[in-house]
């Protein structure tokens, strides 16, 4: 049985305090809940709920629920021009999403790549039962995204040139696909990916790593 796609309206705040409402598209293997546990999987950048489809069937056999939200503006859940793609904003979104689902059973967080920082932070903030990080970002900038200024200044340039974005899109897409051996489904997503990567906390996750010692398991 494959996980079904669901929709839920989520209100959250950007880093500047602006309140946004987004109709979030997410996968959910057991919409009515599990008596055992719920696993919340946080995708990377680029990424989506589809990254965890093999895990879904395995957990379903164990009667464990798997939910995978798609972050706004990154390809599946619709974006908003006010989005800043910062960790603070991502945390506001992820916590609001989980609050709306009103999960009562044990919560286990999984984070892949860029999503590992947010899975880590959420696990600590919500005192999760467990935490799994796959290809986590770590405490130093990974060689694949060095030098990080390419992402920071590249994203800043794009978002400062609103009238020219449609002209820039194919160039950003070509640069991204030729340098990172990945395919961007839509060219306008690439600068959003870049901004999300540019806003990694890196060393800022150290206090959260330390606090994982206080998690239940």
Number of helices: 7
Q: What is the helix/strand order?
A: EEEHEHEHEHHHH
Average pLDDT score = 95
> What best-fitting shape do the alpha-carbon axes yield?
globular
Helices and strands in order, then pairings?
Elements: E1 4-13, E2 19-28, E3 37-42, H1 53-61, E4 65-69, H2 87-101, E5 106-112, H3 115-125, E6 130-134, H4 149-160, H5 165-180, H6 190-198, H7 206-211
Parallel strand pairs: 3-4, 3-5, 5-6
Antiparallel strand pairs: 1-2, 2-4
Sum up the structure in keywords.
217 residues; alpha/beta; Rossmann fold; 2 domains; six-stranded mixed sheet
Explain what the structure shows.
By secondary structure, the protein is α/β, with parallel strands linked by helices. It folds into two domains: 4-140 and 201-214, Alpha/Beta hydrolase fold, catalytic domain (Rossmann fold, 3-Layer(aba) Sandwich), CATH 3.40.50; 142-199, no CATH class. Helix content is 36%, strand content 20%. The protein contains seven helices and six strands. It has helices spanning 53-61, 87-101, 115-125, 149-160, 165-180, 190-198, 206-211, and strands at residues 4-13, 19-28, 37-42, 65-69, 106-112, 130-134. α2 (87-101) crosses α3 (115-125) and α4 crosses α6 (190-198). The longest helix has 16 residues, at 165-180. The radius of gyration is 17 Å and the shape is globular. The mean pLDDT is 95. It holds the Pfam family DUF1057.
């Amino acid at each position: 049985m494959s996980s079904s796609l669901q929709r839920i309206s989520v209100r959250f705040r950007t880093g500047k305090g602006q309140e946004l409402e987004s109709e979030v598209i997410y996968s959910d293997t057991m919409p009515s809940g599990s008596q055992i546990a719920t696993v919340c999987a946080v995708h990377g950048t680029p990424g989506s709920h589809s990254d965890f489809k093999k895990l879904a069937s395995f957990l379903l056999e164990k009667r464990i629920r798997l939910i995978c939200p798609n972050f706004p503006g990154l390809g599946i859940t619709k974006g908003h021009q006010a989005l800043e793609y910062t960790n603070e904003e991502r945390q506001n979104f992820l916590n609001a999403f989980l609050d709306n689902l009103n999960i009562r059973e044990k919560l286990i967080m999984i984070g892949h790549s860029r999503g590992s920082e947010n899975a880590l932070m959420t696990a600590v903030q919500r005192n999760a039962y467990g935490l799994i990080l796959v290809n986590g970002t770590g405490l130093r900038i990974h060689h694949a995204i060095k030098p990080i200024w390419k992402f920071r200044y590249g994203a800043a340039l794009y978002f400062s040139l609103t009238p020219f974005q449609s002209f820039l899109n194919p160039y950003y897409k070509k640069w991204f696909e030729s340098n990172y051996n990945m395919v961007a489904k839509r060219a306008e997503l690439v600068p959003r990916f870049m901004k999300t990567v540019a806003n990694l906390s890196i060393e800022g996750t150290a206090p959260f790593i330390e606090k994982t010692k206080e998690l239940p398991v």
